[in-house]
Amino acid sequence: MNAPPDSPLLALQRATHATLHVLATELADLGLTAAEINALANLADGRPHTASELAAAVGSRPTTLTSVVDRLERRGHVTRGPRPGDRRAVQIELTDSGRAAAVTISEAVAGLERRALDGLSPAAVDGFHQVVRALTEVRA
Amino acid sequence: MNAPPDSPLLALQRATHATLHVLATELADLGLTAAEINALANLADGRPHTASELAAAVGSRPTTLTSVVDRLERRGHVTRGPRPGDRRAVQIELTDSGRAAAVTISEAVAGLERRALDGLSPAAVDGFHQVVRALTEVRA
DNA sequence: CTGCGATCTCGTAGTATCCGATATCGTAGA
DNA sequence: TCTACGATATCGGATACTACGAGATCGCAG
């Protein structure tokens, strides 16, 4: 199968869907959706983020993130507060339960990556990052 | 930017969102959504596909595809018909207008890929494909 | 203190996605 | 032949995602 080399973009989307689905299945206990998982994973470093930063990190618009953060806040996983020094920006921070969830997510992500990338050469992984980065920065 | 090497999975999702958005912007004239574009791109080889095959190709469930194909059919881009020899399966084929749209999409995809991958080594692209493929096939 | 740009939220609308149930079809087995 | 079982796709209903435009709040320059 997969006789033709297959467009990088199509392969990319397939991989995204597939990994997202695996992750959602593994993390079903948390009761989180894909977007929420993605947001928490990007918050996992513990640094506070603004809505804009987070939107850029997950690849969506700030408006989209509002509802996601709403739900995360309602569940007590994050808090919203003004950023000291610039009260326009909203600072999104993990709570204790949010940090716990983020750790679980990070471990699942790391485990999945380990399983997938086990037999591959570092050069391949490096090439992957180069391509992904180039694709992310492409403009219309 | 990109100070930390950043998880492959997060980078993957970011790239998917970014490229999808660029594509949707470029192809706004067609009046198609991301899922529809994805489906047409996967049908672009002209071969007939079944709903299951197409679902696997785009990375979603057959139920999800039904509504997408519904819309494509209503717009006259595809036809549904029974597959000769197995009337359970539904054969999805491009119409003339669907083929035209698919060509436009393929060109946009190819152009985007060319722009993004221009300066990169073939080895990097090869590594990208290896990683993406491994990620796609990972299991829970 | 006035205007302008930045940042976020809210309202609204259309899609996407899935689960469970159902209908149709193919195939193996009695 | 006919019956049971697996495969395939659709339908109904529910939830979430995503975006756009409008509005609110705030920082900053003059």
Automatic annotation (TrEMBL), chains A, B:
<dbReference type="Pfam" id="PF01047">
    <property type="entry name" value="MarR"/>
</dbReference>
<dbReference type="GO" id="GO:0003700">
    <property type="term" value="F:DNA-binding transcription factor activity"/>
</dbReference>
<feature type="domain" description="HTH marR-type">
    <location>
        <begin position="1"/>
        <end position="137"/>
    </location>
</feature>
<dbReference type="InterPro" id="IPR023187">
    <property type="entry name" value="Tscrpt_reg_MarR-type_CS"/>
</dbReference>
<dbReference type="GO" id="GO:0006950">
    <property type="term" value="P:response to stress"/>
</dbReference>
<protein>
    <submittedName>
        <fullName>MarR family transcriptional regulator</fullName>
    </submittedName>
</protein>
<dbReference type="InterPro" id="IPR036390">
    <property type="entry name" value="WH_DNA-bd_sf"/>
</dbReference>
<keyword id="KW-0238">DNA-binding</keyword>
<dbReference type="InterPro" id="IPR039422">
    <property type="entry name" value="MarR/SlyA-like"/>
</dbReference>
<keyword id="KW-0805">Transcription regulation</keyword>
<dbReference type="GO" id="GO:0003677">
    <property type="term" value="F:DNA binding"/>
</dbReference>
<dbReference type="InterPro" id="IPR036388">
    <property type="entry name" value="WH-like_DNA-bd_sf"/>
</dbReference>
<dbReference type="InterPro" id="IPR000835">
    <property type="entry name" value="HTH_MarR-typ"/>
</dbReference>
<keyword id="KW-0804">Transcription</keyword>
